[in-house]
Queue: 2 jobs
Job 1
Amino acid sequence: MALDVMAKTCTFVGICLENIGIMRYEEFISMIFRMDYTPPLSDEYTAVIDTDFAEVPVRLYLPRRKSETLRRAVIYMHGGAFCFGSCKQTALDFLNRRTANKLDAVVVGVDYRLAPQHHFPAQFEDGITAVKFFLQDKILSKYGVDPSRVCISGDSSGGALAAAVTQQMKNDPEIKNKIKIQALLYPGLQMIDTYLPSHRENEHGIVLTRDITIKLVSLYFTKDEALPQAMRKNQHMPLESRHLFKFVNWSTLLPEKFRKDHVYTEPVLGRSTYSFPALMDNRASPLLANDSQLQNLPLTYILTCQYDILRDDGLMYVSRLRNVGVQVVHEHIEDGIHGALSYMTAPLYLHVGLRIKDMYINWLDKNL
């Protein structure tokens, strides 16, 4: 029954989204996410506080139970293509409550500013501001957190923010307390090549199609319609970006089973008359970081889904991190779809979403 409901919903969304704007898309998402749902009473041991860290809204999940030792902490960046979503969203609120409860950990959900009202780098700036604030000795002490056991994580675009913040903080001399591990759930990590094998195979995919992805990602940078038009043709990058394509060359970075019979075609550069330097910024696309920027990153967990247009971003990041000696744990969900975590609560209770939730929390429990 749940899968039937989901299939009908996705079909309806797929038919309608071509002719609706960002606000109506957000309405569809809020309907699907069922923000009126109340998490089970089994999570009553977690107190929830809405506050802010240096003027960045956050939702704190604090275990009510007394602890004789310092607690672990997880900083979570929500997904939503930088355009919608919140840690108050039903499913992610449930995920963070359950994480705090199962791990006896403090969880910080970061509600960064959203596009199209706020373009890049506002989202990144909010993410790194909140993380830096939390990692202060006085704040960690206030919430009883062990400075050596902090994780940063996120799903989809939140995974991109988590990866970007982790990269930027690695060598920041102002940060005494470092991130121990990072966990990236079906992350979107680059925007310079919009014709990867996963883009081709999932062009008309469940929930997230290629056209919807391009429409939303472009709003991260601008409201100019010229950008999504060029991105659809994979002709949106300038000539001076040529050196970056070795970092996202799927013909060398993807395992053979994902390359299949696809033929690599180098994107056409310099066709657009406009210029968006942010497209070449690794704070927006963490896959564009060079090897030296990736070295010595913390233990990393990356989860990818087969039926996901963003699948290859995560797979390429696994390859790049391993190539520079970073320890990576990769789990691939053969029956997974993008955004599966968002459908694990009422009315769908999608099994694969619940399975991903358990895999994520169990990995954190063993490694944080």
Job 2
Amino acid sequence: MKNPRQLYSSIMMQGFVIISRNYRSNPKVDFRKLRPMILKRIEDRAKDYPVKAMVPVARDVLMSRALLIQGVSTLLQVIPVWSCKFCPEVYIGEKGHEIKTCRGYKRHAKNKLHEWERGGINDLIVPVETFHLKNTFQDVIKHDERFDYNRVPAVVELSLQAGADLNAEELSSTKLECLGAESLSNDDRRLVAEGTLRAWEVVRSGVQKLLMVYSAKVCKYCSEVHVGPSGHKARMCGVFKYEGWRGTHMWKKAQVDDLVPPKIVWFRRPQDPKVLDDKWRSFYGHAPAVVDLCTKGGAIAPPKYYCMMKLQGLPANVPFKPRG
């Protein structure tokens, strides 16, 4: 007599044999007959988009993005921003820091001092572009069709798919006036900084809400972003350019940081020296570049950034006294 374990295994094996026989006996599926049904389901699904409840969120994201760009452009006229010539490092202050974190360029030595030059708005608000789709549920973009589509900012494409109107009247009416920052008083400059910081938070939170409803993809190995149900097939991935993948992207679900990169920079606190030294780098804090720019313009950073900024941390070169 078989023991219970052997009896169970024999029953399972017989079941697998029966299932495999039935599977092989079934005729092959005719995908030509299923194609009209699949296209009909896709067409019916497109009728549910855009989601009406998310249209105001998409409009707020577009308007706040315009305010953000205007505000950062205004603050850059009076607050110096530095970018490294050989790596993506950015610093906001009167003079670049002396922290040895340069990643190098090609065969340039690693972990060396940065070589600073004047930065611009693209160093703070990193441009992330994607293909502009004609409709949300269109066919997947093939490699030979990559030049048939325009490239637009990913945040704009996400907002447009969510029902926002790029030519809305309220979008142009809420832009900041193009005034030189030198002509603004300290109070006006502080108001610009506060409005810019508020716009930054609205864009980030709005994109997070939209990503809960609308699909967006990002490549695992490069910064390519695609807004839509499925990623495109344009072979543009630099990692696999000379390998067997032929530059094909490996897609995964995109997050807020993929569409709106925070661009973390070293943050100089009031207790820190004017030029940050590499020897005391463990004392210094960090902050998103836009947040750092706005705080230097007079705005108060939200409390959620305090831990990153180390506002209450000890200053550098503090003499420690051993407990007796």
